[in-house]
Structure formats: structure tokens, C-alpha cells
Amino acid sequence: MNKNDRSIATLDSELLRSFIVVARHGNVTRAARALHKTQSALSVQIKQLEERLRVTLFAREARGVTLTEAGETLLQSAEPIVRQLDQVAASFAQTPVTGVVRVGIPDEYGTSILPDVLAAFAARHPQVQVSVRCGFSVDFDTMVDRGELDLAVTTSDHLPVAGKARVLLEEETLWVCRKGFPFSSGQTVPLALFERSCWWRDVAVSALQSAGRPYRIAYSSDSVAGVKAAIASGLAAGMIARSTLEPGMQILKPEDGFPELPVSHLLLLRGEGTDTVAVEAMSEAIVSAFTDDS
Predict the structure, then answer these.
(1) Of 7, 66, 145, 294, most Cβ neighbours within 10 A?
(2) What residues does 176 pair with on adjacent strands?
(3) How far apart are CA 91 and CA 78, in angstroms?
(4) Mean pLDDT for the chain?
(5) In whole angstroms, how far apart are CA 251 and each of 62, 176, 197, 239?
(6) Which carries the bigger pLDDT value, residue 117 or residue 128?
(7) Would you put residue 160 in left (φ > 0), alpha (ψ -120 to 50) or beta?
(8) How many Cα atoms are found within 13 Å in the side-chain-facing hemisphere of 22?
(9) What is the distance between the alpha carbons of residues 132 and 119, in angstroms, rounded to a whole number?
(10) What Cα–Cα distance (Å) separates residue 48 from each residue in 8, 14, 74, 123, 216?
């Protein structure tokens, strides 16, 4: 850039909003539908933003778009800026937030995090109807895709594609048993697992198989509460997130014959066409509750 060129790009909040929605959806067509714009109009907005910033924000691919390094940087700044603008606008708004928000929360967080989320949200937006599904989160991805849930908290052993989900928490996963439960390194491990296939079940089994550690399924359940009850009773060992570790549980380590486990990521999924004030407010309440809890 010429030393005499001191011009600074001016940013339009509407362009930033369009950019954020495209980043979330990873697809211009779906983003245009969510914003009630034509695809060409949305593409023009993204091009305008790229020209103003003199960077490429998205890499175009066959199935959609992905954020470039510059796009990732902008997304980190744009989201809080737009949220702050919305908060300022809301502080002057005469009409309260209304509507319906459907949320999925895993059962292990149903008694610890969910009350804080609902209390904070209800205090700020008493006229919004909230429908909560608390249970086995393996179904939440599909329910969000089908439009049955607006927001859902779920877990994964890998980070999501940029714009597809928001990372709430990254934490260690642990092998645990009841304190004092005798485990020798060559002993067949009695396992407490989820009844249905999910990454928690698959990772536990795969880790033991890769380490050559014999195991047997001693208990299976569709809920985290059931799996943890089996662990607490001394019936079996199992895999849990560190944040859900309870008194009376003992961590099993490599020296006990238990292999290292991958880090888990707690994610907030958001469905297409959910760019409403009510859903955005609930999203922020969930993020705040998990951040405070962590």
C-alpha cells in the first residue's frame, strides 16, 4: 500500500450480518434463504465486503464455502460487534422479544447448566415460549437438520467445520470407576456404555481395542445418569467428561492399563432459518451459562 494512502475500510453492519450467516451455513444458497435474500444479492454483499477489506473471506468449493484465514479472523470480531449492536437496539426497543425457541440439552447438563440458562433467559425475555428436550444428544444433529430444534448442545471428538457450530467447551475425557475398585492391568474391563452407537461409545471401545485391553459390556443405558450410576455402584468402568466427574469416582490412568482418550468438544448447533431475535438471545444465554460454569 502507498505510504500516503491512509484510507481505512468502512464496514456496514448489514454486510457483517450477511457474512456471519454465510459463515454459519457454509453455503450461500442456504444463507440467502435464511436471510430472505436472493443468492445473487447475497453474493454481491460478500464481494463488497471482500473488496472493502481487500481480502478473500471464503474459499469456494463444490458443496459450499469455507472460511479462509482472513474469514476466520473477521468472524471472531464480527460476531461480538453485531451482538453489541443488537443489544444497543434492544435497549431502545419498545416491543419485547416474543416467539418460540426449541432447545436440545444433553441430560448430563440438565440439572447443572439448564436451570441457569432458563433463569437468565426468562428474566430478560419473559414473553418467549421455550420448549426444551433434555436427553440423549446423539439425535440432536438430525433434529436440528430437520428443523425440529432451533438450538442444540451436543458433544464431539473433533472441531466442527467453521460456521457450522459454536464451541462452548473443550475438555479432557477420562476413564473412571468407583473409588477403591480393584483394577489390574491385564484384567478384562467391565464397561458401562451407551445403548446406542455414538462417539462416546465408539471412542471407548476403539481405544481399548487399539490398546489390546480385553473388555466386556457389563451395563448399557440410553442416559448419562444410567452410565454414571453403574460406575458409582462399582459395576463397571466408563468414560466421562472431566466436568461431570463426581465425588466417589476414581480416575483410571495409563499405568492402570487404560489408554489415553481424545479431547471432547461441547458444541452449540443452530438450525437453518433460525436467525430470529429470540433464538439469538437464547444462544447467548446458553453460551454465557456454559462459560460461567467452565
Answers:
(1) 66
(2) 238, 251
(3) 20
(4) 84
(5) 45, 5, 24, 10
(6) 128
(7) beta
(8) 35
(9) 13
(10) 15, 11, 14, 39, 59
Would you give the distance in Å from CA 172 to the centre of its chain? 16
Express each pLDDT in 88-119 by its tens digit.
776 666 567 888 999 998 877 776 677 778 87
Q: Which of 267, 275, 274, 19 is nearest to 160 (CA)?
A: 267
Q: Which is nearest to 195 in space by CA: 139, 267, 251? A: 139
Query: In this structure, what C-alpha cell is assigned to residue 81?
Result: 460487534
Q: Look at residues 198, 209, 248 and name the one whose alpha carbon lies nearest to residue 228.
A: 248
**Residue at grid coordinates 476403539:** 206
As given in the structure block, the three cell numbers for residue 291 are 462459560
Give the residue, 222 or 237, on which the prediction is more confident. 237
Residue of 145, 124, 136 whose CA lies nearest to 283: 124
| Mean pLDDT score, 156-184 | 77
Q: Residue 85 above 80 pLDDT?
A: yes
Q: Are strands 165-171 and 264-270 parallel, antiparallel or unpaired?
A: antiparallel
Distance CA 281, CA 289 (A): 12
Which grid coordinates are listed for 211? Answer: 490398546
